[in-house]
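Sharing a chain and its predicted structure for anyone who wants a worked example. Both blocks are below, sequence first, tokens second.
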Amino acid sequence: MPELPEVENARQVLEKALDRTITDVDDSDEYVCRPHRPGEIAKALVGGKLTAAHRKGKTMWCDTVTADGAAGPHLGVHLGMGGRIRVTGPRGSREGDLAGGLPRKENERAQKPEWDRVTVSFDDGGSLRLFDKRRLGRVRLEPDLDALGPDAAEIGRDEFRARVGRGTAPVKARLLDQSVLSGVGNLLADETLWQAKVDPHRPAGEFTTDELDELRRVLRRATRRAIEKGGVHTGEVITHRQRDDVCPRCGAPMERGTVGSRTTWWCSAEQA
């Protein structure tokens, strides 16, 4: 599942589709475009433009304007478990084909037309497409953002203390709760807790103010690095989350268990 860094990379690609007049929308996939009927998204967008690309946690959406310049509906785009945003430049330009989202696998290089679940065409000959082999992404008008907590890359110190540092739930479960903090997924949580040398089972309410401040700093640093490098799969401990592997920092065996209903890996020595 894409986490904050992958969605931010996709949002940056989505910016290449802004301020271009929309001439057509293929929204015929009723599952990906639910609850909309075929043609409903097209009716709302054709003739208008996407004007800004936003992200909060793992959720991404665009502002739009209609053909007459009035504010249009928000267009929500969700990558699902394997989706990618692909944007092509004007016909004949060197902008080429830009993609953002989860890393592309070798067996997906030969793209089939039916894997483009939603296509937005522009008057300059370019397009915006949701490429999704597994058909788990989603495009819809007016996505609901009310249940999301503050963005993990932007949350302030005091709010982080108040939201994360309370209760008896394990700290990893608190980080994963999207109503507490939006954007942190399983890999980013493991990477952050490993970098901070924190036991993922430790109750969140036991952390001191200084410990919470350090955890926030580490989370923001891990998030920035993942965005710069192309995703959470580039984290230092991620490739060591496997049986019979060792901590890349101290050499102690990596441990595996379940925290917050999610498979979790930690260093048996430094995160004990």
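Comments welcome. The chain has two domains: 4-141, 157-267.
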